[in-house]
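Per reviewer request, we include the raw input and output of the structure prediction for the construct analysed in the revised manuscript.
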Amino acid sequence: MKSKSEQFADMQQRREKILEMIREDGTVTVKALTETFGLTEATLRTDLRMLQKQGFVQRYHGGATLMTGKQNTGAMLLERQTHLEEKEAIGRLAAQHIENGDTVIFDSGTTTTAITDAISHIRRLSVVTTAVNIALKLGGEPGINILLTGGTFKFPTLSTSGEKAASFFENVLAEKLFLATACISPRLGLSFPSETDIKVKLAMINSASTVYVVADSSKIDKVSMFAMPCDWSNIHYLITDSGISAAQVNAFEALGVKVLVAPLPLKRAM
């Protein structure tokens, strides 16, 4: 029998995971939560009520949706823009691996968006992306050809997803893929708070000659709810920031993944 403190910790962790799922997909049903957690509908409705009380979600009959989704969509902003300095550094380093004439796949997310902020040196580029904000950002640039996948629109990540998005990549041949992930671990691989994008990400990997996973160091040695079934031989590079430890670098490189570390800018003394 677990103590009250252990039960409280489990409840808090479960609610954090529920919020992750809603932030990833924009919405979740009580039925899906019961299947994921193996708990009663009454328990999970209580979790959703508390998340609504805290201002994170809006409940509806049978589920909940992200409270801030409408505002994010209108402003073309991404949820949870944390570790911005690290992501900008990763974006600058990743951009150095893009050459004129490349065909590049950009996954959706804040880190892949940071790459597009750093490609002003590119004059000719073909881009395939699931990210609506990236398509809008690069679509007006001369010399950049954009292919935006179809599928179901997900407002928290400003991206398209589902079977149609995955099938789009069946005939795509790209030199490079810049792939986002929620968590990455040498032992457990790449993982995500929701299953919905995994098929799309696997389709992207199959379409690219070289795969770069871009992830800030806070995501390393962490695990989310759903693992992506992917062989490490399909992942060629991990681009991260200087928060990664030497032991973590060695663990990835032992799997055949080359680790590229983006230096963070030096802080100026006040």
